[in-house]
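Weekly puzzle thread! Below is a chain. First person to post its structure in token form gets bragging rights.
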Amino acid sequence: MTDERGWIALFSGGKDSSWALYRALEARLPISRLLTVHPPEDSYMYHVPATDLARLAAESIGIELVEVESGVETTNVTDSGAQGDAELAVLERALLDLDDEIGVDGIVAGAVESEFQTSRIEAMAARLGVKTYSPLWGRDPRSLADAMIEAGFEIRIVQVAAAGLDESWLGRTLDRKTLDELIALNERYGVHVLGEGGEFETLVTDGPHMDRRIGIEYETEWDGTRGRLKITDSWLGE
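Winning reply:
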């Protein structure tokens, strides 16, 4: 165990942030808090769907969760850079508050390929004088998906918005069969295997870092080209 204190894991409950947290725990980084930003409906910086379930995940993981609302107005926004900076400012304020409370030594982030997100997080970390740990960055997407499945992550697809992903994908588990289908869709339509372009979003309902599985009940909402799960109930299993 290192003698550092106050590593903060940026956490949405989706597969990428959950995998980054899992790898950080494997690396024995002392994670003091999970930090969830509840974003606007159209966010350039954050995972959007089902972030309210992060509190159940945090309870199962056993690490205290800090939640903040984005508060950023995105209606009629045309400048993605300005919106991204405004969304990041909310996160930076939360980290400054945590630094005052417990001392922040580093940030764990789940970015895979997004320069838009990563450049902003790294610049923020430099301003705060803290380290970053981004174990997914630059890794092969298929290898990452394989590793998540092999580790025992239960990953549910909660939102889709891409050619080849119809309503039947909502609620599916990302297993070997699903991964093979995503690889085929990548070859045919260019769908990113990990949904890095927003093609799909996920929720991790179980994993080796969790003591209890998250159970969900839901309805599907589908407009003909895209859709999401409307989660009507959620709980932690025994």
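Puzzle host: Confirmed. Bonus trivia for everyone else. The two ends are 30 Å apart (CA to CA).
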